[in-house]
Description:
Elements: H1 4-8, H2 10-17, E1 21-25, E2 28-37, E3 43-51, E4 54-55, E5 58-59, E6 66-70, E7 86-95, E8 98-105, H3 116-134, H4 160-164, H5 168-171, E9 178-182, H6 186-195, E10 202-206, H7 213-216, H8 225-229, H9 234-242, E11 249-252, E12 269-272, H10 278-290, E13 293-303, E14 309-318, H11 324-328, H12 350-367, E15 377-383, E16 388-394
Amino acid sequence: MSQRPINLSSDLKKLRDEGYNIEVKAGYLIVNDVPYVNSKKELKTGVLVSTLSLADDKTLKPDTHVMQFAGDHPCDQNGAPLARMVIGCDRTELLKDVWIDYTFSVKPLSGAYEDYYAKVTQHVAMLSGPAQAIDSTVTAKTFPVILTIEEESVFRYEDTASSRAEIAAACEKLTIGRIAILGLGGTGSYVLDLVAKTLVKEIHLYDGDLFLQHNAFRSPGAPSGEELGEKLQKTDYFGRLYSKMRRGIVSHAVHINESNVDELRQVDFVFICIDGGSAKRLVVTKLEEFGVSFVDVGMGLYLTSANSLGGVLRVTTSTPTQRDHVAAKQRIAFSDGDGNNEYDKNIQIADLNALNAALAVVKWKKLFGFYLDIDKEHHTTYTVDGNCLINEDLA
C-alpha cells in the first residue's frame, strides 16, 4: 500500500481527511467500509475499486466513470436490486486479496468526473443511501488509523499500466526475489528494459565492459554525447538509468568467471546473454549444479551478396525438470568465436536484439505463470527470412 499518491493528490487527501478508508495499491484506488443493503435487507459493508490515472504519482482527471465493487448485489432499503448502476457481474481477482464482484456505470450529469473525490463520493452516496435509510448512523467515514510505515514497492511510482489493463494479479506472480542478467550487450540490455518493469525485487547486472558509442545504437534509450563521454561501466550506466524507475538494481561491473560464479547460487533465475565460449560453459554447468533455471539467448546474422541481412535467433530454456536437451541436442554452443556456430556471429541489430530479448522474457514469464504455457517449449528459434518461429523440446 502506498501513501505517496494520497499525500500528493488533493482529491485523495480530501477523501482521507474526511474519514474515508482509502488505499492506493498497484495502480488502484480502493475504498473500504462502504455501507450498503443486500437482497435480504441486511446492512453490509463492501469495497469500491477504481483504476487511477497518475502523473508522477499525482492524480489526473479520471479517465473513466466506471467503478467496481466487492460484495453482494447492492439493493435499496426494500431489498430491490439497484439494477440501473450494475453493468457487469463476474467475480474477478484484481490483486492478491482484492476481489471484485460487480462493475458499476454511474456517469455524472456533466459526463465525466472532475476528480476522484467526486467519483468516490457519488458512488458511496448511491450505495450507502439505502443503508442510511435503515440506520442513519452508518457511514463510510470510519476514520481508520493511518500507519506511518508503509510497504515499500520496487517501483518509485505506481504501476498504473497494469491496473488499467486489469492484469495486476498476473503481474504479482513475478514478485520474485532475485534474477541475474549476464551480459548487457544488445540483447541483455533489452532484457533489462523488459524485466525492470516487473515486480522482481532485485535485478543483478553482470558485465565488465564500458558503455561506449557503438553500444548506444543497439541498446534501449537514447544516451547523450555527454553521457557516452563519461565512459561508465555498462552495469553502472544501466543501473543509473533504470534506478530512476525502480529500486533493486544491483551493479556487478565484472564478467562472470570461476572466481565469482558461486554468486549465482543465490538467484532465482538467470538470463545468459554472453557470447559462447568457456565462460558460457562454466555458467551453464554451475547453474545446473545449483538447480537454478535459466534462459540462454543467441543470435546469428549474415550479410548476403545483395546487402540484406538474414539469420536466426535462439532462446534455449533449462529448468530443474528439463535439462537433458541442452547437452543431448547441443542446443547451446560453447565455441570461442571460431565462426562455426550459426547463432554466434558478431552482427548486432537493435530490432533483432529486442526481439531476442522479448522471446526470452516471454518464456521467463511463462515459467512463473504470467503467460499461458501449454506446450512448455524449452527451445525456440526465429528465422528472419520467412518470419518462421519454431518451438522444440516440449515438456
